[in-house]
Write a structure and sequence with these properties.
The chain is α/β, with parallel strands linked by helices. It contains 11 helices and 8 strands. It has an 8-stranded mixed sheet with strand order 1-3-2-4-5-6-7-8, sandwiched between helices. Helix 3 links the parallel strand 4 and strand 5. Helix 2 packs across helix 3, helix 4 crosses helix 7 and helix 5 packs across helix 6. It starts with a strand and ends with a strand.
Length: 272
């Protein structure tokens, strides 16, 4: 088996690889793919998610190795810009540590490298029980899926068909592996060797552990800058977390500016 990868954009332009958040799939990057058509875009579905649901198990380090191979074999000139969100950002961090020579620029949004409150209680058994209680009975429940989409994930209504499919296809094994990997991931060795300009971004309302994670990453990656996104409108924490979909123009402007060396949008404030 191999990862499912969507490929779009210019046949000769620099490559961007987009790494989605946990429990989703490449569809989460639809707004960016549509707007960044001047780039060559590779959008994989990570293991146990989307159309890679049968690629098991999900492990951050293994996923980073798969993305490294994707860059070597399909990115133009054997190098790529890498944009990661949430668990995809954790995979991007692991990639930077293990194969820094493959990354041209990086954008890391909400890359957690510290435990959230209660993380020690999140055992595989408890996570499996949570899945059986909160997912299994509601696989065909439209109202429950919409409730999760809005309040737990902060995903706009227009993506209901894609979100519903991802919700229904996520297995207990996949759910457990995603949660465990997310909570156990820490700063990997090797980040001090990274030469790629790296933008680290976190939403203003996100957990303190996420803000401190951004500071940790900025402290160890030589060419990193950390910013807090202050949105113009009212957003929940979940909506801020998935701002590539809830504020797609701002996210895309941020990526384009960082990759081209231009000034970042005014909504990005240096993280102090």
């Amino acid at each position: 088996m191999a990862l499912y990868v969507e490929e779009t954009g210019s046949a000769s332009a620099p490559t961007i690889i987009f790494l989605h958040g946990g429990g989703g799939a490449g569809w989460m990057w639809q707004p960016q793919i549509e707007q960044l058509d001047e780039y060559h875009c590779l959008v994989p579905d990570l293991p146990e998610q989307g159309r890679s649901v049968n690629e098991k198990p999900f492990r951050i380090q293994d996923s980073a190795a798969q993305i490294a191979e994707l860059i070597r074999t399909r990115a133009h000139h054997g190098k790529a810009h890498v944009v990661g969100l949430s668990e995809g950002a954790q995979v991007a961090v692991a990639l930077l540590a293990s194969a820094p020579e493959l990354v041209d620029h990086a954008v890391l949004s909400s890359a957690l490298v510290r435990p959230l409150p209660g993380a020690k209680l999140m055992t595989p058994g408890l996570i499996g029980l949570t899945y059986r209680l909160s997912v299994t009975p509601f696989k065909n429940s439209d109202w429950w899926i919409r409730l999760n989409m809005k309040y737990a994930a902060g995903v706009p209504d227009k993506y209901y068909p894609q979100f519903s499919t991802s919700f229904k296809e996520l297995t207990e094994s996949g759910f457990t592996n995603l949660m465990i990997e997310n909570q156990r991931f820490r700063l990997p060795h090797g980040l001090e060797q990274v030469k790629a300009p790296t933008l680290i971004v976190v939403g203003k309302k996100e957990y303190p552990a996420m803000h401190q994670s951004a500071r940790d990453l900025a402290a160890v990656i030589p060419a990193a800058q950390a910013y807090q996104v202050v949105h113009d409108g009212k957003m929940s924490l979940a909506e801020e977390h998935n701002w590539n979909m809830t504020a797609p123009d701002l996210f895309t402007q941020t990526v384009r500016a960082w990759l081209s060396g231009q000034a970042l949008p005014k909504q990005l404030h240096p993280l102090m």
